[in-house]
Amino acid sequence: MIYPLLRKFFFALDAELAHRIGMAGVDLVNAAGVSCLLGPAVPPQPLRVMGLDFPNPVGLAAGLDKNGEHIDALAALGFGFIEVGTVTPRAQPGNPKPRLFRIPEKQAIINRMGFNNDGVEKLLSNIAAARFARWGGILGINIGKNFDTPIEQAAKDYLFCLDRVYLAASYVAVNISSPNTRNLRELQQDDALDALLGSLKAAQSRLADQHGRYVPLALKIAPDLDDRQIQAIADLLRQHRMDGVIATNTTLARSAVEGLRNADQAGGLSGAPVLAMSTAVVGKLAAALAGEVPIIAVGGIMNGADAAAKILAGASLVQFYTGFIYRGPELVAEAAAAIAALRAT
């Protein structure tokens, strides 16, 4: 595969510039009809989760394609599902640059992007121009709040986004766990989460009746949770009959990268150092949920064994982002093959 050579070029550039060039390249390869040059084909491995039929259990996590500008090109790489966003009601620039930092010694990234995106209306326009969802692809839309919306009014932003994206989404992911929007993680606390989930589920019911179509809701949580918090979240997920939970977002911990260049940058840490803690959260959630709410596992998947470990911990589906940056498109097929081998035993 050619990606290891390309990565040397990309890693010599500023991380955000490399991202833009890389996505333009994926679009170009897709337009030329030669996406197969970037990674091997992924055999079908159908499964039903959240009432949706996935062609395989390996997805792209939110953050890579915030505005839904590259959906068809990314889907051509073999992903079983694509999650776009995080999107907010209004466009916003995010945090000041630089805000994306590599730690290659540990196959890690620190980001403090801050929900930079072009707003929900632009996202919907981009989705409408893509063929993926129209042709039956599973498209998740990850929603958040604007940075200047007071935390006590955050539900209004989530409800607005849910209303706007409902018909365009296969499922909607509710992001309350980014460390890069001030006070956002307060929404994971018991009373705040109870109120938010209640509002979202009521809106989901109304929209399902209005449109004659039920769109699942999944909650995305942080890895920086203690056992009591995990149990409390699991109880609320079951109580409100949430359709899924995505575990986990990036971490604020730095012990695994301490002393390395960029390790002291503010933001969320992703990649290989997050694998163990994220997988532990998946395992604890699986035990607490007792199969009532399916888990989409994300965090630290850098090879097929990592993906299989998430399934063994209790996940139904997996996603990655940082692994895609370090390993390239070949990771999609490798992860899918490892999960297939695991399920065959």
What is the compact description of this entry?
With 345 residues, the chain is an alpha/beta fold.
Number of helices: 11
- Distance from N terminus to C terminus (CA atoms, Å) equals 29 Å
Q: Can you list the strand order of the major beta sheet? A: 3-4-7-8-9-10-12-13
Instruction: Encode the helix/strand succession as letters.
Output: HHEEEHEEEHEHEHEHEEHEHEHH
Instruction: Give the CATH topology.
Output: TIM Barrel
CATH homolog superfamily: Aldolase class I
Gyration radius, rounded: 18 Å
The count of domains is 1
Which geometry do the CA atoms define? globular
Roughly what fraction of the amino acids lie in strands? 15-25%
- Write down the overall mean pLDDT: 95
What report would you give on this structure?
39% of the residues lie in helices and 16% in strands. It has 11 helices and 13 strands. It has helices spanning 3-11, 15-31, 71-75, 120-129, 154-165, 190-211, 227-239, 275-289, 304-313, 322-327, 330-344, and strands at residues 47-49, 52-54, 58-60, 81-87, 100-103, 108-111, 138-143, 171-175, 217-221, 244-247, 268-271, 295-298, 317-320. Strands 3-4-7-8-9-10-12-13 form an 8-stranded parallel barrel, surrounded by 5 helices. Strands 5-6-11 form a 3-stranded antiparallel β-sheet, with no helix packed on it. The longest helix is centred in the middle third of the chain and has 22 residues, at 190-211.
